[in-house]
Amino acid sequence: GAKRRTQPKTGEDGVKDKTAGEAVHLRREIGLLSAVSFIIGTVVGSGIFIAPKGVLMNSGSVGLSLLMWALCGILSLCGALCYAELGTTFTKSGGHYTYLLETFGPMPAFLRLWAEFLFIRPAVASYVSLAFGRYVVEPFFAPCPAPMVLIKLVSILGVTFVVAINCWSVTMASRTQVTLTFIKMFALVLIIIPGVIALAKGKTDNFQNGFEVDALTLDKLPLAFYNGLYAYGGWFYLNFITEEVINPNRNIPLAISSSMVTVTVLYVLVNLAYYTMMTPAEILFSDAVAVTFAQKALQGLAPVIPFLVSLSCLGALNGGFFSSPRMLFVGAREGHWPPIFSMIHIRRQTPLPAVLLLYPLVVFMLITGETYQLLNFASFARWFFIALATLGMIIHRYRYPLLPRPFKVPLVIAVTFTVVCFFIVGLSLYSDPWNTGRSFALTLTGVPVYFVTVYRFRLPHRWARFLSKS
Fold this sequence. Notes:
- There is one protein chain.
- By secondary structure, this protein is mostly helical.
- The protein has a single domain, classed as Amino acid/polyamine transporter I, CATH 1.20.1740.
- It contains 20 helices and no strands.
- The longest helix has 36 residues, at 106-141.
- One of its GO terms (cellular component) is membrane.
């Protein structure tokens, strides 16, 4: 008997233990270059190829929409700097979830987790995959509109492909991400060059009377911001994988700030190119702005642009599916989510349950949703929780002034960012009460779930025992 006890555990259990150990102590393998390409690769998705229409529609003029793009970039940079402080103060992975847990406690953190997997991630993923489907299908039907059924079918195929890669291998998923980042940068440069050349030759017709403010209304302002901020969204993804970044105190702030400055410059230049070659009416009429642009400015290369944009969407989709399960993984590790989601496939080392949980929700939203509704629907909860996390950071700074903070963001930036976020979120309830109201209501459905599952010790003993088994 004694002999048997001293032998190490072998077989499936032994493998499981090893895998779990490795999963909890994630190896630091992401250097500065990988971190920058991870952020840029996740930020530059479908947004810059679709959102110009939404920004123009809600801001009302060319000049104001360009200003909006620059402001969204500056606001995102402020938010990114706040998250750089959060990421170096709290060194755990998990992004928003971890920061809310550390500053406000378990309930807001659980609600963030709940909202992320119930509708934020599915809505964002279905929005991006719809863009992928549109860019793949539309060139075959131009100039007629493509059938929506076919677009949705191709979108589902795109999601399935990304889910398969993320279930199959982490290495394959990260290599795919880096490759697709370079393709995206190429697509943006391909759009910028002819626009800049035309501008240099004096093609400025569409910028005449650029700042007409008659069409601008206060209720549309947050929706213009949402469209712009959506295109910049993704600067917080590096914080989901903090535990895997080499020298995080230096690399997280550096990667976040350099990628956001790069993206802002590229985005403003791309929009300049769009407006140089297309009238505001043409942009508003187009569902796929980059395709219409290619047909006007790059006749020879016109068929290439939709292909590059669809690959760009695929990259953004892949980045989301790669990083979001990390939040589930950390949540399950903290006991806020069923333990199965902290498990990793024995041979493949991929967070299989977490990735697969998202798949049916994304497909469901894809089939039922409409692009711009999905965007407003997801943005409300996303920005509300981001504002809450930066508010938590400010409070935490006052509560624990002596805590070491390797990177400190100036207080004025943190306060400005938090106030602007709460303002946009509050105003959007007034602008689009149906979608933002649904988003708010769905977030609150997490409250009873929290009390029944996480707050178990308040329940009758028999219930608690049943829940811990399930």
